[in-house]
Design a protein that fits this description.
- Residues 36-56 are annotated as: Disordered.
- By secondary structure, the chain is mostly beta strands.
- The protein has three domains: 26-149, no CATH class; 154-290; 298-443, Porin (Beta Barrel), CATH 2.40.160.
- The chain contains one helix and 29 strands.
- A hairpin with a 2-residue loop joins strand 17 and strand 18.
Length: 445
């Protein structure tokens, strides 16, 4: 049985959205929720992870990173580094993560085996928020994951409303699972209360989806020092027992809120098949933003440049050996719009073009921008929920690497947008012919 690392040691320092990140250092540890498709040496990896990233000190220098899992099972007893390597800076703030060492468990020898790469294994990337308050990470052969810094617990003098989208999994395309929603989060010492939880499914025809019956509110958690840093365990206190007799014991959800306000949640499902009444999302977790206090200027949102990832959720093998998923580093927004963009979708005032990089190789781009084989039309902002776009449309061009149809197609989606330390973030979720697609973008200009 796989058990989560949730021991509470005490409450760390406090922070809230927009708080100065001067305390952040060049080496930062991030909490990452489980994303289906994560594996190590061909073996699925369940449960949350941490990423420790030391950025390059300057031009020509290299930083370092490591990916760590936290499991209690027959093969692992707590923290275990599974990948380590070097960090180099590319154009527009994108980081390249090259794996130089992999650590995997061998069923043949019953021990952990180290594989060293004399030439770093390429295909890993990261996009960090200013001040290293969080961001997005993707290692070679793994799906993209949102990450949040966990040096401090959140501190909200008054409850903060968050809007989120689900991190989809192989079962997410169903009509009964939460796809997006909102929640009010308040703190009192180490106690964290989640109230006014609103959950909705995706609508296949666009617009607001059906409301899902959420967990009874308030949901109470506690923030303190865990294996992942200062994270919120929900529910709290947590009791782990040996289920025996075919019973199941629900693991806790783990929630992290970075200093600039980025929210990421692991909803406790892991890869062990245990079920849990999620506090926020469906899928395997959630990524969210503080709701803006004023309506956004949508033209400014789509007029910015972004870096991020496009994640196509698995279409089979739920929590075992997922299949059909894809994850590609992406760029959206151009300083000079390529002429072929119009072949993907007709331009509107609420549309932003972007796409992947040829051969997933941003370093080969002469200007740091990728292809124009994707487009997102946010449509109008919701009249009562600032930063929420319920009528978004996504166009996938025929040239996009994961477009198996080899022709242009479109599908309805929802989006949440806001600012983190004065930069826009945009998270979009939609479904196309039974598969969910998540787009995670952070402003790069």
């Amino acid at each position: 049985m796989i058990l989560p690392a949730v021991s509470m040691i005490g409450c760390g320092g406090k922070t809230g959205p927009g708080t100065s990140t001067a305390q952040q250092q060049s080496t930062q540890t991030y909490f990452a929720p489980f994303v289906e498709g994560t594996s190590n040496g061909g073996t699925p990896v369940g449960g949350p992870q941490t990423y420790t990233i030391s950025d390059p000190a300057g031009s020509g220098s290299a930083g370092a990173f490591k990916q760590t899992t936290y499991l209690l099972n027959a093969n692992q007893e707590g923290a275990q580094v599974i990948n380590a390597g070097e960090v180099t800076a590319l154009q527009r703030g994108l980081l390249s993560l090259g794996v130089t060492a992999n650590y995997s468990f061998s069923n043949d020898t019953g021990a952990w085996v180290t594989t060293d790469y004399s030439t770093p294994k390429t295909g890993g990337f990261a996009v960090e928020l200013a001040g290293q308050a969080g961001g997005l990470v993707q290692l070679p052969g793994q799906p993209a994951a949102p990450v949040a810094a966990t040096a401090q617990c959140p501190n909200f003098a008054t409850p903060q409303t968050y809007q989120f989208v689900t991190i989809p999994n192989g079962a997410s395309a169903g009509t009964n699972e939460t796809a997006y929603g909102s929640v009010d989060i308040g703190t009192s010492g180490s106690t964290v209360n989640l109230t006014n939880i609103q959950q909705f499914t995706l609508s296949s025809t666009g617009g607001a989806g059906a409301q899902v019956q959420p967990a009874a509110t308030p949901v109470t958690g506690a923030c303190g020092t865990t294996s992942y840093g200062n994270t919120i365990s929900i529910p709290y206190p947590v009791t782990i027992t040996n289920p025996g007799g075919g019973q199941t014991t629900p693991p806790p959800a783990v929630l992290a809120i970075g200093p600039s306000g980025l929210l990421v949640e692991d909803n406790g499902l892991g890869s062990n098949g245990l079920t849990y009444q999620t506090s926020l999302s469906g899928g395997t977790g959630a990524i969210g933003l503080p709701r803006p206090s004023q309506p956004l200027d949508t033209g400014t949102v789509v007029g910015a440049q972004y870096l991020g990832f496009i994640f196509g959720a698995p279409t089979g093998g739920n929590f075992g050996a997922p299949t059909g998923w894809s994850s590609h580093v992406a760029s959206f927004g151009f300083t000079s719009l390529p002429s072929n963009c119009s072949s993907v979708a007709a331009q509107t005032t609420t549309l932003i073009y972007g796409g992947d990089f040829t051969n997933d190789n941003p370093s080969a781009s002469p200007n740091g921008f990728g292809n124009c084989d994707f487009a997102i039309d946010l449509g109008p902002e919701d009249s009562t929920n600032n930063g929420f776009y319920p009528n978004a449309t996504v166009w996938m061009g025929a040239g996009y690497a994961a477009n198996t149809s080899n022709k242009n197609n479109s599908f309805s989606a929802v989006g949440v947008a806001g600012q983190l330390n004065g930069k826009y973030a945009l998270f979009v979720l939609g479904a196309n012919t039974g598969q969910q697609w998540a787009i995670y973008l952070l402003q790069s200009n």
